[in-house]
TrEMBL record:
<comment type="similarity">
    <text>Belongs to the ketopantoate reductase family.</text>
</comment>
<dbReference type="InterPro" id="IPR008927">
    <property type="entry name" value="6-PGluconate_DH-like_C_sf"/>
</dbReference>
<comment type="function">
    <text>Catalyzes the NADPH-dependent reduction of ketopantoate into pantoic acid.</text>
</comment>
<dbReference type="InterPro" id="IPR013752">
    <property type="entry name" value="KPA_reductase"/>
</dbReference>
<dbReference type="GO" id="GO:0008677">
    <property type="term" value="F:2-dehydropantoate 2-reductase activity"/>
</dbReference>
<dbReference type="InterPro" id="IPR050838">
    <property type="entry name" value="Ketopantoate_reductase"/>
</dbReference>
<dbReference type="Pfam" id="PF08546">
    <property type="entry name" value="ApbA_C"/>
</dbReference>
<dbReference type="InterPro" id="IPR013332">
    <property type="entry name" value="KPR_N"/>
</dbReference>
<dbReference type="GO" id="GO:0005737">
    <property type="term" value="C:cytoplasm"/>
</dbReference>
<dbReference type="GO" id="GO:0015940">
    <property type="term" value="P:pantothenate biosynthetic process"/>
</dbReference>
<comment type="pathway">
    <text>Cofactor biosynthesis; (R)-pantothenate biosynthesis; (R)-pantoate from 3-methyl-2-oxobutanoate: step 2/2.</text>
</comment>
<dbReference type="InterPro" id="IPR013328">
    <property type="entry name" value="6PGD_dom2"/>
</dbReference>
<keyword id="KW-0560">Oxidoreductase</keyword>
<feature type="domain" description="Ketopantoate reductase C-terminal">
    <location>
        <begin position="174"/>
        <end position="283"/>
    </location>
</feature>
<dbReference type="Pfam" id="PF02558">
    <property type="entry name" value="ApbA"/>
</dbReference>
<keyword id="KW-0521">NADP</keyword>
<feature type="domain" description="Ketopantoate reductase N-terminal">
    <location>
        <begin position="3"/>
        <end position="145"/>
    </location>
</feature>
Length: 299
C-alpha cells in the first residue's frame, strides 16, 4: 500500500519506520531540511538497544495521492494540516492525535475524505530529524469515524511487524476515552513536576495528586469500572516508569504542549455539564503559564 505519513515527530518517524517493512512510505514534513535529512540518511529506529534502518521517500508539504494518509502531528498543528488536506482529492485518512479535542474539529470539517481515528499506545522519543527511540512497545487501535467499508485498509494494516500491531476496533471512542484518562493523569503532572512517569506512583504526594485528576476526569467522561481504570493507570505508570511523557519532553524543549487537547477538552466538557474540576483547572492554568515561560526563554 502507498502510505503517506504527515508529520516528522516521534510518532510519525516511528510509524514510517515500521510500516516501511511492508508498504511504500512517504513522510510529509513541515520543514524542507527534515525531508532532505530523511531522504539522505534514511530512518533510524532504536528499540531495546538494537538499531534498525529504513529507506523511505520524504518531501515537505501536504501533496499527492495515497492509498492511506496517516496524520501524526500534535493537536495544535492540526488545523493547518486540515487546511492542506482540504485541497487534496478524496482519500482515506487516519488521525493519530492524543486527547479528544480533534474529534470536535473533525465533526465540523466539511470534507469528502474517509476518516479513521486511532489511538497510539507506544512510547517514542525523537532523537533527531531522522531518528527515533521506541521507548515502549504497545499497539495502535483504530476504527472508522463514520460507518463505511474498511476492508481494504484493515487488510493492509494487518501487514505490520509484531512490535507494531495496528488493531481495528468498533469501540474506538471507548479506547480514546480510556487513553485520555491515562494521559490526563500522567502528562500534566510529569510536566509540572519534571519527573519521569514512575515517580507518580513512587511518591505518595504525587500519587495523591494523580488520583485527584483521575477522579475528576472519570466524572467528566462518565466512565464506570473505576477500580479497573485506576489499576490501568497505575499499570501504565509502572510499565513506562523510566519514560518521559510527551508533555514533559515538550516543556523541556520549549515547545507548546498538548494541554488543550487533553486537559482543555475535559474542562470544556466539564463546563457543559456544570461539573467542577479544581485540580484539572489548576493543572491547565499552571501548564499555560509554564508554556509561555518556556517559549519565551527559547525565542
Amino acid at each position: 500500500m502507498n502510505i503517506g505519513i504527515i508529520g516528522g515527530g516521534a510518532i510519525g518517524l516511528l510509524c514510517a519506520s515500521y510500516l516501511s517493512q511492508h508498504h511504500d512510505i512517504t513522510v510529509l514534513t513541515r520543514r524542507k531540511e527534515q525531508a532532505e535529512e530523511i531522504r539522505t540518511s534514511g530512518l533510524k529506529r532504536t528499540v531495546k538497544g538494537e538499531t534498525f534502518r529504513a529507506s523511505v521517500k520524504a518531501r515537505a508539504g501536504i501533496t499527492g495521492v495515497f492509498d492511506l494518509l496517516i496524520v501524526t502531528v500534535k493537536y495544535h498543528h492540526l488545523q493547518e494540516v486540515l487546511d492542506g488536506l482540504s485541497t487534496l482529492p478524496r482519500q482515506r485518512i487516519l488521525f493519530l492525535q492524543n486527547g479528544m479535542a480533534h474529534l470536535l474539529d473533525l465533526e465540523n470539517w466539511d470534507t469528502s475524505h474517509s476518516i479513521y481515528i486511532g489511538v497510539v499506545e507506544h512510547g517514542a522519543m525523537k532523537v533527531s530529524d531522522h531518528a527515533v527511540n521506541h521507548t515502549g512497545i504497545g499497539v495502535i487501535k483504530w476504527g472508522a469515524f463514520h460507518p463505511e467499508d474498511t476492508a481494504a485498509v484493515r487488510n493492509a494494516l494487518n501487514e505490520t511487524p509484531a512490535q507494531f500491531q495496528m488493531i481495528y476496533t468498533d469501540e474506538w471512542k471507548k479506547v480514546l476515552e480510556e487513553k485520555l484518562l491515562v494521559n490526563v493523569c500522567i502528562n500534566p503532572l510529569t510536566a509540572l513536576l519534571h519527573v519521569k512517569n514512575g515517580e507518580l506512583i513512587a511518591n505518595p504526594a504525587y500519587e495523591y495528586m494523580m488520583k485527584c485528576a483521575f477522579e475528576e476526569a472519570l466524572s467528566i467522561l462518565g466512565l464506570a469500572e473505576k477500580e479497573r481504570l485506576w489499576s490501568h493507570v497505575v499499570s501504565i505508570c509502572k510499565k513506562t516508569a523510566a519514560n518521559q511523557s510527551s508533555m514533559l519532553q515538550d516543556i523541556v524543549k520549549g515547545r507548546e504542549t498538548e494541554r488543550k487537547a487533553i486537559v482543555g477538552y475535559l474542562l470544556k466538557k466539564a463546563q457543559a455539564q456544570e461539573i467542577t474540576a479544581p485540580h484539572l483547572t489548576f493543572f491547565n492554568r499552571s501548564l499555560e503559564v509554564l508554556e509561555k515561560k518556556q517559549t519565551k526563554s527559547f525565542e
